[in-house]
Write a structure and sequence with these properties.
7 helices, 5 strands, 181 residues, 5-stranded parallel beta sheet, alpha/beta
Length: 181
C-alpha cells in the first residue's frame, strides 16, 4: 500500500504535520508539504470549455496523489476551515476532472485520513470541516476512513493533546491492519 502525507500548514514543524506523521508512525510514506510548492488558484473555464494545465507544481502533487492508496491530508484550522493551501489544492481537482476524463475512476475508493488542528474548540468547531470533507470524498468516490482532531496553538503543542495522540495512534493501528489484509 502506497501512503502519502500532504501537509498544508504555513509553519515548519507544525502541529498538523506532527499529528499527520503520528498517524503514519513507523510506516513508509511520501510527504508533500504544500508550503514548499506553488499551486495556483483554479481558473474556471467551464463556459469556454477550455481547461489548460498550468506550469505550477499542482500536477507533480496530483500525480503522487493518484499513485497513493491512502492519503493523509493534514491542516491547521484557520478561520474555521482548512488552510488556503489545502483548499487551493482541492479546488484544482476541478481542473483535473476536465483535463483527465479518467481521473475520477483513477482515484475511486482511494482511502483518505483528515487531520486538523486548531486552538479554538476544534473538537466542536472542526465538525463543519469534517462534514465538508465527507462531501468532497462522496463526490470524488473516495473513502474517508478516519479523522483526527488536535487542539493546539504553539508549535508542536499538539504533543500534549492526549486525546489527539491516542486517536492518531488508533488510526495508525487501523492503517497497519489495512496493510495486513
Amino acid at each position: 500500500m502506497k501512503l502519502l502525507l500532504i501537509s498544508s500548514s504555513g509553519r515548519v514543524n507544525s502541529n498538523s504535520e506532527c499529528l499527520g506523521k503520528k498517524v503514519l508512525k513507523n510506516l513508509k510514506f511520501d510527504e508533500i508539504n504544500l508550503l514548499n510548492y506553488s499551486v495556483d488558484d483554479v481558473l474556471d473555464k467551464r463556459e469556454h470549455k477550455i481547461w489548460q494545465k498550468t506550469s505550477d507544481d499542482y500536477y507533480k502533487i496530483i500525480d503522487l496523489f493518484v499513485k497513493a492508496d491512502l492519503v493523509v491530508l493534514s491542516s491547521p484550522i484557520y478561520w474555521y476551515d482548512v488552510s488556503s493551501r489545502l483548499s487551493r489544492f482541492i479546488e484544482r481537482i476541478s481542473e483535473t476532472l476536465h483535463t483527465d476524463p479518467d481521473f475520477k475512476a483513477k482515484i475511486s475508493h482511494k482511502k483518505v485520513v483528515l487531520v486538523i488542528v486548531g486552538g479554538d474548540a476544534p473538537l466542536d468547531k472542526g465538525k463543519v470541516i469534517i462534514q465538508r470533507f465527507r462531501y468532497i470524498c462522496e463526490f470524488l468516490n473516495l473513502d474517508l476512513v478516519a479523522t483526527v482532531i488536535g487542539c493546539a496553538n504553539r508549535s508542536l503543542e499538539v504533543i500534549s493533546d492526549e486525546n489527539a495522540m491516542l486517536t492518531a495512534q488508533n488510526v495508525n493501528q487501523k492503517i497497519l491492519e489495512m496493510l495486513d489484509n
